[in-house]
Amino acid sequence: MERAMPQAVPLGQMEVFQALQRLHMIIFSQNVSPCGKFLAAGNNYGQIAIFSLSAALSSEAKEESKKPMVTFQAHDGPVYSMVSTDRHLLSAGDGEVKAWLWAEILKKGCKELWRRQPPYRTSLEVPEINALLLVPKENSLILAGGDCQLHTMDLETGTFTRALWGHTDYIHCLALRERSPEVLSGGEDGAVRLWDLRTAKEVQTIEVYKHEECSRPHNGRWIGCLATDSDWMILSAGQGRCVNQWQLSGELKAQVPGSSPGLLSLSLNQQPAAPECKVGSARGSGDPGRPGCVDRSVTTLLPLGPDSRRQQLQGGCLYQSGLPSFLPVLLTSSNTPTSISGV
């Protein structure tokens, strides 16, 4: 549905309109460019804004350097998910995924390269696409969302090659176990499902809400985010106050205390030289019962090792010195982040 915009608005009213837009803005998705220098953020108005990370995160950064270099209208509805290949930025909204060339975006030439829509059950069905996942080994893209399925698209031909059924409610998140290759999915039904891409079959189901330690009936069953390593560990979070650590067998191994109900994002960092992992988690302070309904972003570094300390950062930007694979991440927020502003 397109944004309502007055045909002709006096200057003073336009400023009020823009201020109201910023007040009600939700950042649903973010992605760092292949070179690591730029950040794309997608909001509930269908816009994608591009920020310069070096300018915004500089110790001498001014307010102007924290604003977008370029903002363009990508979708009619919210931009729920984004991922990047070596050359392309892929964005997903209601029912379709679009491709944009990073080189053209940075030249402020934001022309859509292509768009694709999965084969839905009816022509009237336009479910949101909540998650995108690249599978480099098979040069494919997995899409999942409101139709409760995982769709695989061949990035070379643009054709959809398979659909995976199993979830009974819409899907929020995906994670890749690249060595296997296997994909994890989590959704509103409270289940984490493990799929073998070689056989296109579900090989394991972890029904998180059935574990007494993880059950939060007043907050719902939903799984908002997943992370995994390539060996045995699965991390899930959503309606509860903890990040749950699972074995592939479905055994609950540990619970890492978080902040409040409603964890929306997980990022796992493993340091080869240290016997520990660090997990970045993000949550909102709004309605804990639904992802995206948040007022403010809080990021917590949750150590899985015995001698690590938990660190909490406010304002929507996650950065930890000494961890080179932790890139700055813009977190879900309905207000303009304090670290990078002006989407």
Automatic annotation (TrEMBL):
Annotated GO biological process: mRNA export from nucleus
Keywords from the UniProt entry: Repeat, WD repeat
WD repeat start and end residues: 164-205
Protein name: THO complex subunit 6 homolog isoform X3
Family stated for the protein in its record: Belongs to the WD repeat THOC6 family.
Annotated SUPFAM superfamilies: WD40 repeat-like
InterPro entries, per the entry: THOC6, WD40/YVTN_repeat-like_dom_sf, WD40_repeat_CS, WD40_repeat_dom_sf, WD40_rpt
GO CC terms in record: THO complex; transcription export complex
